[in-house]
Prior knowledge:
By secondary structure, the protein is mainly beta. It is about 5% helix and about 45% strand.
Amino acid sequence: QSHLVESGGGTVQPGGSLRLSCAASGFSSGFYAIGWFRQAPGKEREGVACVSRDGKNTFYSDGVKGRFTISRDNVENTVYLQMNSLEPEDTAVYSCVADLLSVQAMCSMDQRWTPNYRGQGTQVTVSS
């Protein structure tokens, strides 16, 4: 069965860092662009960072630009999201998706969109 599995979430103080991982199982994620989305309580899902199949193109939402870095290891079939300088507003469930869209198109998709693959999500809480 093909699916994505996220890990690395947790609780961190403002200004802290976390590294999320998105592992593909049952398929080669290297054929797909991968995106990290987040959804906070009462808010719509939003794309925060997306990376192309070869890792050369990335896209970040304005709210995370300069603080988050997306990368991928196609040998390990895993995509990472390094999150630095975390703020309480970053608190959300983070999930990864895989699809054939361009990185900008993927990260711009609204919550009505159903990607080819999507993980269950991992909770990130930023609180003092």
